[in-house]
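= Paired protein data =
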Amino acid sequence: MRSSIAFLSLALLLVAADAQAAVGSRVLVQDDGSLKINGRVVHLFGIYMPKDGRICDNSIRPIRCASRAASALRFRIRSVVYCENVSKNRDGSLNAVCLISSRGQIFEPKTDLAAYLLNEGLAVALPNAPFEYKTIERIARSQGRGFWGFFADSIN
């Protein structure tokens, strides 16, 4: 009983510490699809976002143009982003698994941003990616999603 109370207390402290760090973080999706969090560049672990045609959002000023993956991330990220560092690159940037909740609540199921892009057909799984990422990519490819199909705006 005592050990389960201690475990629960530790779990709540970790969640509270995670939430506090995440809430204080400002997240900016850069044009290449990487995230800028507290001044550090974070790349989504396990995926590569191919350079594709740039699309522009003219609903905001100044007009922003970015890759399809970056535009999809900007659209999807409407709440706190939780990232867990996996590795560090030579340039000081991080590779991380980043999750979001749909309504910004701590105890809500989270969406993996890399898995989201793979599912939309806007990224490919790298060789060191988790098995789940490779499976999601295969499903998107078989269903012709994203760049596995065709883009309506590229028809001449």
